[in-house]
Amino acid sequence: LQIICTDASGRKGCLLRGGSFTLTAPAPFADETSCQCQAPHEKLTIAQARRGTPVDRPVRVYADGIFDLFHAGHARALMQAKTLFPNSYLLVGVCSDDLTHKFKGFTVMSETERYEALRHCRYVDEVIRDAPWTLTPEFLEKHKIDFVAHDDIPYSSAGSDDVYKHIKEAGMFVPTQRTEGISTSDIITRIVRDYDVYARRNLQRGYTAKELNVSFINEKKYRFQNQVDKMKEKVKNVEEKSKEFVYKVEEKSHDLIQKWEEKSREFIGNFLELFGPDGAWKQMFQERSGRMLQAFSPRQSPNSSPTRGRSPSRSPSPPWVINKTSPPSSPKAASASLSSMSEGDEDEK
Question: In principle, which of 92, 98, 124, 177 could form an S-S bond with 27, CB 3.0–4.6 Å?
Answer without folding.
Answer: 124
